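User: Here's a structure from my thesis project, written as structure tokens. My advisor, Dr. K., wants to see whether a designed sequence matches the one we expressed. Can you design one independently, without my sequence as a hint?
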């Protein structure tokens, strides 16, 4: 099952194209859903943005088994977030206008904001897809800590973060703990998911490695420098660096 695409395994080209179409439709449907919730005010804007942050990357990772193994499958899968990079650049530079996208992805409704966090987010997922693909725990750790970890850190921190960290008054113990737990649990979940297809093996050592990466990422996210440079940049960089040291 790990060698060919899930659609038309006898024809890798046709199977990969079907996987690409399905993944693209899923991503666009989710983005459209959260654009509508933002437009209708279903969720508070910051919560809506974090729901996008958590959902898109993790849903995309669920689609990875649909593609074939090797560079061809990785490249075609990377087109899904890669196209979003182009979209973000066009909107962020003012070349194209899309108020729904800006409202669903930005903190304060400024289109220039998406040239930072959303651009880093899409770039991270594209990079992990092309460079590591689905056989590497490094890719799992980086994307899960970026999506689930960072997303839940903000959601939980805003609601239960009364106790602030001594080195950063903008961050809380609740948010940092939530980030470590969410990043770790989602990483283990995807390890189990990919092991069903034979992409990775399940081992206690890998679980411990995910825990180390998630704790380190939560510490980096809580540092004042992450607020200065954007945690959508610092968290995946930390995850990739620590993950390389832990898993290689």
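Assistant: Designed independently from the structure alone:
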């Amino acid at each position: 099952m790990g060698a060919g695409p899930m659609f038309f395994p006898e024809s890798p080209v046709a199977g990969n194209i079907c996987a690409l179409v399905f993944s693209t439709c899923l991503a666009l449907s989710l983005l459209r859903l959260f654009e509508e919730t933002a437009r209708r005010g279903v969720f508070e804007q910051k919560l809506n943005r974090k729901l996008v942050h958590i959902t898109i990357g993790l849903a995309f990772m669920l689609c990875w088994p649909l593609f074939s193994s090797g560079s061809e499958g990785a490249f075609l899968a990377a087109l899904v977030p890669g196209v979003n990079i182009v979209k973000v650049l066009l909107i962020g530079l003012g070349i194209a206008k899309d108020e729904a996208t800006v409202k669903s992805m930005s903190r304060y409704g400024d289109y220039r904001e998406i040239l930072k966090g959303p651009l880093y987010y899409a770039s991270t997922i594209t990079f992990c897809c092309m460079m590591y693909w689905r056989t590497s725990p490094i890719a799992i750790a980086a994307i899960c800590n970026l999506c689930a970890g960072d997303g839940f850190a903000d959601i939980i921190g805003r609601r239960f973060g009364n106790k602030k960290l001594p080195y950063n008054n903008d961050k809380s113990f609740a948010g940092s703990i939530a980030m470590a737990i969410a990043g770790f649990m989602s990483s283990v979940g995807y390890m189990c998911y990919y092991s069903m297809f034979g992409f990775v093996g399940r081992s206690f050592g890998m679980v411990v490695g995910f825990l180390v990466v998630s704790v380190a990422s939560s510490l980096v996210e809580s540092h004042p420098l992450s607020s200065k440079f954007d945690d959508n940049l610092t968290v995946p960089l930390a995850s990739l660096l620590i993950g390389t040291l832990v898993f290689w």
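When you compare it with your expressed construct, this may help: The longest strand covers residues 168-172.
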